[in-house]
Amino acid sequence: ELLDFYHGSHWEARERRNEKRLTFNYAKVFIDKVTSYLMSGNSLVVEPQEGTGLSPSPNLSPQGRGISNAEARALAQKAGAALAQVAEDNNLEQLDFETEIDCAILGDACYKVIWDQEAKRVSITAPDIQGIYTWWVGDDTSKVWRLVSKYSLTQETAKSLYPSASLPSASLRAGRASQVNAKDKTASITEVWTVADFELWIDDVRIEKKANPYGLIPFVIYPNLREPKKFWGVSDLANIMEPQRELNRATSQLSKILELSGNPIAVLENIEESEDIAVRPGAVWNIPEDAKAYLLDLLQGGGVRLHIDYINLLYRILHDLSESPRAAFGGTERDLSGVALEIELQPLLQKVRRKRIIRAAAYIQRSRLILKLLEKYRQESFGDNQLRVVWAPLLPRDLTALVNNEQVLIQSGIHSRRRAMDELDVKDPEMEFSRWLEERETILRMNKELNSAPSKGGTRVRAAEPLQEAI
Fold first, then answer.
1. Binning pLDDT at 50, 70 and 90, where does residue 61 land?
2. Do residues 293 and 269 lie in contact, with contact meaning Cβ atoms separated by under 8 Å?
3. pTM exceeding the 0.85 threshold for the entire prediction
4. Which of 95, 254, 309, 406 is spaced 20 to 30 Å from 190 by Cα?
5. Beta bridge mates, 122
6. How far is CA 99 from CA 128, 137, 152, 329, 348, in A?
């Protein structure tokens, strides 16, 4: 029902009569708009876990000796590069955007992170959340101990994936096997996951049961917006479905009134029978002496104004309940910028921030699953790292003023350079900081060489002023 509503099926069955019905799909526009603001840009930052970069002790064996800070940073950079490669292999930017739209419509979303034995890489997909079932531990909804994923495949595809399985025909059970092409027959696939075991069922027949090869449930489930004390989330459409339907009804009624006004109705009084009464330019009507004829004016008395005011009220209700002010669509009654624009868009900003808190936790959990699979199947080590998601700003900003502010905060010791780079939307602060250190070291070395190099007359050459300024 939610998917149909998103795609424009707003009229209920009892309202589907042979009359004019207009559909203005604001629901889809609101979903797409909020998703665009939410996914305006993000990057995953990998940093060494605090306390892992230790000074090596000569009295300890290599196994018991801590790693240096440089080694910890190198492992963090290695983990970041591995995650970036997995994101590129799976086109995660597009997958995340499409999954986010699905999540806003249905109320929840899901990622499946597994190892592709053929391609020898991590594979990430977004299963249909309508086929996901979970069991959690007691009242702790954060600990899922069993998960079931159910989906359908054509029998031809199922046989190619599981050649040893005996696949009963779903269409045969329905008694119409002879009428359906073999390629159109479907098989119901059910995967049952726990930390210890994995089961595969095809059409209610278990064809495989084995130990879980990953030792974990390779799914990441997250809500669109979480309801307190509940596992599943809520859809963005829940609040605006009724106002959207009422808006369609109100605009359809107004459209009908305007249409009738453009094709006026002739009213005849004191006339028992009438023939050839047509409303057209130059028409002549012959009526009795005591009769009266006139055109019905549906627009008199300001009745249309009431319809327009009601439509504007519904329009405002839609914006309020969707938390998407008119300014989010680029239209404002006055020129706004800076704090004034932020206040105008405050409902949308708050909604996006609530969503970003949930998404950040899901992306970090997915990244940790990726690193665990790479460590297991490629025998790689990435160390103990801290992962965090850096989101792009929602509103346009004055970059010059922001740089000046961050410069003052760094000089006064309030912000670090990495924090300043986060505020300036630098995707990889650790890499930029290492590059800055390399440039600084190079400039210092050049200055030292120039200061120590004697000239032909026995005097020393002064370092170039631009290099000193750069330092």
1. very low
2. yes
3. no
4. 95
5. 115
6. 9, 27, 19, 23, 20
